[in-house]
Design goal:
Number of strands: 9
Bound molecules: S-adenosylmethionine
Strand content: 15-25%
């Protein structure tokens, strides 16, 4: 198997195919062999797993996944990589490469079609310019057992942030609603070519089988979360009144009072169960 993380191997391979890195496609390729090995290992990929990889690049993580999983589907948008991947991962008959933009695909349908009878997982060194939309697609598909991805360290911290911390955001709530996140390890910039300006981290999101909150209307829940964080410096009463103009300031205060919160409370201090109560109270007023 070609060691594609070895710069002495990688450079001539890229040069001989006339390949130039595309910044626009978020191409930072791994040059430290321990990283893809540890990602595949920590993701818990085994012979019962069907793994969706996003952005195989020249295949360092793909190799590690194919060595462990029953089946791997890798989605890559840049078809200039085809002749290189033929050389680096062509030997694996449990691998299918789909030349597509992952954001234009029906991920749930893909998983149902390709991974029947297997434990579906997603595993990737993500292109950082579209980290959030990709995570949104993977989580909303509601078909994976776990999602293990490398992202910018500060994004990993935002995903795993708890209520009240400065990193806590609407995206933390979104991710925590679907999954239990855990930051696994950091990856320094020198482990890539070209080197990114930031430190990276691998984060695992274990998808919740059951959610411990009762949420009557998911749309209202996410609207309430968005409204609360859109006006970070304002009180929750003002945030809710802007996000739900039909409530008005007085209605927003009544909602908060009904769930035992002061109108001056700030959204960033509230956990998911508090947002669930607020959303359920708004839904009760709307739908009766
Ligand atoms: N997995 C390789 C590695 O670890 O060295 C490459 C990771 S690189 C950070 C991100 C990869 O995602 C690149 O190969 C890039 O071409 C690919 N990519 C970028 N946008 C994509 C998209 N919308 N859909 C699928 N792949 C994409």
């Amino acid at each position: 198997m070609i060691n594609v993380t070895d710069i002495q191997v990688m450079k001539p391979l890229l040069i001989s195919h006339g390949f130039h890195f595309s910044k626009a496609k978020g191409q930072n390729f791994l040059t430290a062999s321990w990283v893809p090995q540890q990602i595949a290992e920590d993701a818990g990929v085994d012979e019962n797993a069907g793994v969706l990889e996003i952005g195989p690049g020249i295949g360092p993580l793909t190799q590690q996944l194919c060595m462990r999983a029953k089946k791997v589907c890798a989605v890559e948008v840049d078809d200039r990589l085809k002749p290189i991947l033929d050389l680096t991962v062509g030997e694996f008959d449990n691998l299918e490469i789909l030349w597509n933009d992952v954001l234009k695909m029906d991920v749930k349908a893909l998983v149902e079609e390709k991974f029947q009878g297997l434990r579906p997982m997603a595993c990737a060194n993500l292109p950082y310019y579209i980290t959030s939309p990709i995570l949104q697609v993977l989580l909303e598909a509601e078909c994976f057992d776990s999602v293990t991805v490398m992202v910018q360290k500060e994004v990993a911290q935002r995903i795993a942030a708890k209520a009240g911390s400065s990193d806590y955001s609407a995206f933390s709530i979104f991710c925590n609603y679907y999954a239990e996140p855990e930051i696994l390890f950091d990856v320094p910039a020198h482990c890539f070519m070209p080197q990114p300006k930031v430190t990276s981290a691998v984060i695992q999101l274990k998808i919740r089988k059951e959610r411990p909150w009762r949420i009557d209307d998911e749309k209202i829940f996410f609207r309430a979360v968005k409204a609360s964080f859109a006006m970070r410096r304002k009180t929750l009463q003002n945030g809710l009144a802007s996000g739900f103009p039909e409530l008005g300031k007085a209605g927003a205060a009544e909602v908060l009072e009904a769930v035992g919160l002061k109108p001056t409370v700030r959204g960033e201090t509230l956990d998911i169960s508090a947002f669930a109560s607020i959303a359920n109270e708004i839904a009760r007023r709307k739908h009766g």
